[in-house]
Design brief:
Helix 15 packs antiparallel against helix 16 and helix 15 (469-483) crosses helix 17 (498-508). Helix 13 (395-404) links the parallel strand 17 (387-391) and strand 18. This protein has helices at 31-47, 50-66, 68-79, 83-109, 147-158, 172-183, 196-204, 217-229, 252-264, 281-296, 306-321, 372-380, 395-404, 439-444, 469-483, 487-496, 498-508; strands at 2-5, 8-12, 19-24, 112-114, 125-132, 135-139, 162-166, 189-191, 208-214, 234-237, 242-246, 274-280, 325-328, 343-346, 363-369, 384-385, 387-391, 409-412, 429-430, 433-434, 447-454. The chain has three domains: 29-109 and 125-238 and 440-450, Aldehyde Dehydrogenase, Chain A, domain 1; 242-417, 3-Layer(aba) Sandwich (Aldehyde Dehydrogenase, Chain A, domain 2), CATH 3.40.309; 469-509, no CATH class. The strands form five sheets. Strands 13-14-15-12-11-17-18 form a seven-stranded mixed β-sheet, with helices on both faces. A six-stranded mixed β-sheet has the order 8-7-6-9-10-20, with helices on both faces. A three-stranded antiparallel β-sheet has the order 1-2-3, covered by helices on one side. It is α/β, with parallel strands linked by helices and 510 residues long. The structure holds nicotinamide-adenine-dinucleotide. Nicotinamide-adenine-dinucleotide (NAD) is lined by residues 139-143, 148, 166, 168-169, 195-196, 199-200, 203, 214-216, 219, 222-223, 237-240, 271, 358, 360, 386, 428, 432.
């Protein structure tokens, strides 16, 4: 985490509260200049070949593999997260994105020939070009301070864009590292450091082509409104309140271990972390008992800041005041650092704030559900729609439930891991945002598709002026002949519309 002081962000390790380093903040008035610079740098980059862009991605992947330990050190110092997670949740998604893009972007972005099946347009040819948008503003949160900006910058660059990155003010060192890794390989990436006012200046900058925002729904709304005033497109990756549905035929031990990881990974500071668990009656008691026992034994990292810990504590206190039971945890861990005990809550009333608000901490609620329909209903009772998971030995039953869950991703006997597999489209519904990152959808979202038409200019165009009654008849007839369903219907239409077709032929002979 970091605190701001006179033009600098001072980073403090949230586990020990010891200083880690500092970065200079960018004055909001200087952000426009960064965007202008990026715009100039984008031109040659956007003109570079797909093979050159691929070479840069491969080069950066090699650097990541070489520098993995140093990158993990920075992330661990800045967030206090366990070192294992620095590899599994920061480096794996980053390298995977580069390797996926190196393999797939040249194919996906290559100009596509588009044919014309319409009889009257058969002589035309076209090409669909996936052109860059220009300058993409990437605004990032602190919870995965390396992986999130890194993957988004990689996708934007692969599509031929330049990037201005605004990392979270709580994790500026990881953000600076992302920018440095790409910039030192020669990619057009600039970084603007600072708080919300720097992000605001970026969204308002002239010449910005798109904003990719990852953060809270609250700030996402402000960003979308500001970008909307300028008609700048936005991708919003916002919060979540992911449900986990445990069916009566689930593998109990796997479901408990999966729930532990998906609820308490990164101290619960995960957009697609499990915050609500719905267990069918047959497994409810043993599930709750095992989950509580194992949660008690966990040794978690800290929350990112005192403010974040206070937010989590307030949600838990409110739930308990309204009748919820804390089977374990429910309080901060004493001593230095912003620690909070892993917490399992049951009997949470619907009126408790934790039922609706994103907790973003090491807290999970567990409730009993009677059947599949009740599980789906409960899981969908949220304004968010990022991820969800179904735990069952029956893949078909899982598939049926997956279709009814309102979410951008549904996992089976696992949760959240697919952020680290670049082919898996990522994004949400409702208050979890819109637009997609990862996969071909994320890549195409960072392009401006251009349809380029080609015509020899030798074929007359019958729909041009002059207009008369005969022309209207000709096109009414042609409509049926061209678009009736099936060859027989079209042949019948051609016979009954022969007069119209003759009139049409005359227009070709003008
Ligand atoms: P946040 O919304 O407070 O801040 C996100 C970023 O926006 C920061 O860089 C911040 O400085 C900047 N910002 C703040 N005000 C701004 C403004 N007015 N204009 C422009 N930028 C502004 O979020 P956070 O606390 O950093 O991150 C936690 C949130 O992010 C959680 O809700 C979490 O679920 C969400 N998240 C979502 C995903 C996803 O993929 N959907 C991934 C990670 C985190």
């Amino acid at each position: 985490m970091a605190v701001a002081a006179s033009g600098e962000l001072h980073v403090v390790n949230p586990a020990t509260l010891e200083p880690v380093g500092s970065v200079a903040t960018t004055d909001p008035t200087a952000v426009q200049e960064l965007v202008t610079e990026a715009k100039l740098a984008q031109e040659p980059w956007g003109d570079s070949s797909l093979a050159d862009r691929r070479a840069l991605l491969v080069e950066v992947a090699d650097v990541l593999l070489d520098r993995a330990d140093g990158i993990a050190d920075t992330v661990v110092a800045e967030t206090g997260k366990p070192r294992v997670e620095a590899f599994t949740t920061e480096l794996f998604p980053a390298v995977d994105a580069l390797v996926w893009l190196a393999k797939n972007a040249p194919k996906l972005l290559a100009p596509e020939r588009v044919g014309y099946p319409q009889l009257h347009l058969k002589h035309k040819r076209a090409t669909l070009r996936y052109e860059p948008i220009g300058v993409v503003g990437v605004i990032s949160p602190w919870n995965f301070p390396f992986a999130i900006p890194f993957t988004q910058v990689a996708y934007a660059l692969a599509a031929g864009n330049a990037v201005v990155l605004k990392p979270s003010e709580l994790t500026p060192l990881s953000g600076a590292l992302v920018a440095e890794l790409f910039a030192s390989a020669g990619a057009p990436v600039r970084v603007a450091q600072g708080g919300g006012n720097v992000g605001e200046a970026l969204v308002r900058a002239r010449g910005l082509g798109k904003v990719v925002f990852t953060g809270s729904a609250e700030v996402g709304r402000l960003v979308a409104a500001s970008a909307g005033e300028r008609l700048v497109p936005v991708t919003l990756e916002l919060g979540g309140k992911d449900p986990m549905v445990v069916l009566d035929d689930a593998d109990l031990a796997r479901a408990v271990d999966g729930a532990l990881w998906a609820s308490f990974l990164n101290c619960g500071q995960v957009c697609s972390g499990v915050e609500r668990i719905y267990v069918q009656s047959a497994l409810y008691e043993p599930f709750v008992e095992e989950l509580t026992r194992k949660a008690r034994e966990l040794d978690l990292g800290p929350l990112i800041s005192e403010e974040q810990r206070d937010k989590v504590a307030a949600l838990v206190d409110d739930a308990i005041a309204q009748g919820a039971r804390a089977l374990t945890g429910g309080r901060a861990r004493p001593g230095a650092g912003w620690f909070y005990e892993p917490t399992v809550l049951t009997e949470v009333p619907r009126s408790a704030r934790i039922e609706h608000d994103e907790t973003f901490g090491p807290v999970v609620t567990v409730a009993r559900v009677a059947d599949d329909a009740a599980a789906v209903r409960a899981a969908n009772e949220t304004s968010f729609g990022l991820g969800a998971s179904v735990w069952t030995r029956d893949a078909e039953r899982a598939g049926r439930i997956a279709r009814r869950l309102r979410a951008g991703t549904v996992w089976h006997n696992d949760h959240a891991y697919s952020y680290a597999s670049s082919q898996a489209t990522w994004g949400g519904r409702g208050e979890s945002g819109f637009g997609r990152t990862h996969s071909r959808h994320g890549l195409y979202d960072l392009t401006s598709p251009k349809f380029v038409d080609r015509d020899s200019g030798r074929v007359p165009v019958p729909w041009w002026f002059p207009y008369d009654d005969a022309a209207a008849d000709a096109f009414r007839g042609a409509l049926r002949v061209l678009y009736s369903d099936g060859i027989a219907a079209r042949a019948r239409a051609a016979w009954s519309e022969r007069r119209a077709l003759l009139a049409l032929a005359k227009r070709y002979r003008r």
